[in-house]
């Protein structure tokens, strides 16, 4: 089940089609015409729209990718809209309204490898261990997405999510990442807790958006109580009532909730008070070299005391040195994660 928000990406036809370049600004229309004339691209004007005909729109954009990037500034790429007419969808008022920017089309060409990964679902999760301090045992893993390129190399999260954001695919990719994490956990036969990241801004209706996630978890016979959904990018959350609705849905199904990067900002602390998660993950900027900073120790202790007094467990992430671990243990910590204990691995 899908919707317009999860519409994965542009479907560029590879057969004869008409491409309409649309702009409400006369000076930009003239610039498009000058650019086409310079590149010797035949065009016509129809109802104040600039029209070209080509045998293969995808190939056309690939051929003129560099020239269009040089000809039009970033802002101009954003305001120039494109609509590709096909046998199934002819030009009309609605199609003009839903046309997409030239920037998105050029991104589609430039990020072809990224789109190949999504189209073929060449995704997997790497797992980073999380330890329970008191029992000195393995508590679970955080599932971290990785894209697999056509040559077998890895597309790491910084590149993967940068391309996700600039192609406006947060809704679709967030869902795919949740599903990949569940499938990878099942394939690796993990029976411990699994932390799965999700972006609350990518879920507009939990009853609808989370159906596929729920369906996969049930199909794989995963224990819902072992799945911990981790709220990320909390600084983008503007509607806390909406987030509460999502968390209530998760909790009602038997899942656990973790709040990421606590201590990063004021709004984050508000979420801690209002959402009452099962676990909070302290921002790694507080953890890094905490043994050398009295201020960081004070901030961490305050967060730990607030959580502890309200029945919330504390996870310290980003630990890379034994001195950091010893300091945290002396103050109080329930779970730990970081390169000191183990790096993310495929299994």
Helix-strand blueprint:
Elements: E1 17-22, H1 26-38, E2 44-46, E3 49-54, H2 57-63, H3 65-71, H4 74-79, E4 81-85, H5 93-97, E5 100-101, H6 102-110, H7 112-120, E6 123-132, E7 137-148, E8 154-155, H8 157-166, H9 170-187, E9 193-198, H10 206-209, H11 211-219, E10 227-231, H12 240-253, E11 256-262, H13 266-275, E12 279-282, H14 284-287, H15 294-309, E13 313-316, H16 322-331, E14 335-337
Parallel strand pairs: 7-9, 9-10, 10-11, 11-12, 12-13, 13-14
Antiparallel strand pairs: 1-3, 1-4, 2-3, 4-5, 6-7, 6-14, 7-8
Q: pLDDT below 50 for ≥5 consecutive residues: which ranges?
A: none
| Overall structural domain count | 2
Largest sheet: 8 strands, mixed, barrel
- What is the end-to-end distance? 30 Å
State the order of secondary-structure elements, H for helix, E for strand: EHEEHHHEHEHHEEEHHEHHEHEHEHHEHE
Global mean pLDDT: 88
Structural class: alpha/beta
Please write the CATH class name of the largest domain.
Answer: Alpha Beta
The CATH homology group name of the largest domain:
EAL domain
The main sheet orders its strands as 6-7-9-10-11-12-13-14
C-alpha Rg (nearest Å): 24 Å
CATH architecture of the largest domain: Alpha-Beta Barrel
Range of strand content: 15-25%
Please tell me what the overall shape is: elongated
Percent range of helical residues: 40-55%
């Amino acid at each position: 089940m899908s919707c317009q928000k999860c519409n994965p990406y542009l479907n560029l036809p590879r057969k004869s089609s008409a491409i309409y370049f649309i702009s409400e600004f006369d000076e930009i229309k003239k610039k498009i015409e000058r650019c086409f004339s310079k590149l010797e691209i035949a065009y016509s004007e129809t109802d104040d729209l600039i029209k070209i005909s080509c045998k293969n729109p995808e190939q056309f954009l690939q051929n003129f990718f560099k020239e269009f990037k040089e000809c039009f500034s970033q802002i101009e790429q954003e305001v120039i809209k494109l609509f590709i007419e096909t046998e199934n969808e002819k030009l009309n008022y609605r199609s003009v309204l839903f046309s997409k920017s030239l920037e998105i089309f050029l991104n589609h060409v430039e990020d072809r490898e990224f789109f190949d990964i999504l189209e073929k679902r060449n995704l997997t999760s790497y797992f980073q261990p999380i330890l329970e301090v008191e029992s000195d045992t393995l508590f679970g893993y955080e599932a971290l997405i990785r894209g697999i390129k056509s040559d077998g190399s890895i597309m790491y999260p910084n590149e993967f999510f940068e391309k996700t954001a600039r192609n406006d695919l947060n809704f679709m990719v967030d869902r795919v990442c949740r599903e990949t994490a569940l499938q990878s956990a099942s394939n690796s036969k993990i029976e411990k807790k699994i932390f799965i990241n999700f972006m609350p801004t990518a879920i507009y209706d939990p009853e609808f958006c989370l159906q596929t996630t729920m369906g996969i978890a049930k199909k794989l016979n995963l224990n819902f109580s072992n799945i911990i959904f981790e709220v990320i990018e909390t600084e983008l959350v503007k509607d806390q009532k909406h987030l509460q609705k999502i968390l209530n849905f998760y909790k009602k199904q038997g899942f656990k909730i973790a709040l990421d990067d606590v201590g990063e900002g004021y709004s984050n602390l508000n979420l801690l008070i209002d959402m009452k998660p099962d676990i909070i993950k302290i921002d790694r900027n507080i953890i890094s070299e905490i043994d050398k900073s009295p201020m960081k120790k004070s901030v961490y202790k305050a967060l730990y005391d607030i959580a502890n007094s309200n029945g919330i467990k504390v996870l310290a992430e980003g630990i890379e040195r034994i001195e950091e671990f010893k300091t945290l243990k002396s103050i109080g910590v329930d779970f730990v994660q970081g390169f000191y204990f183990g790096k993310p691995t495929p299994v």
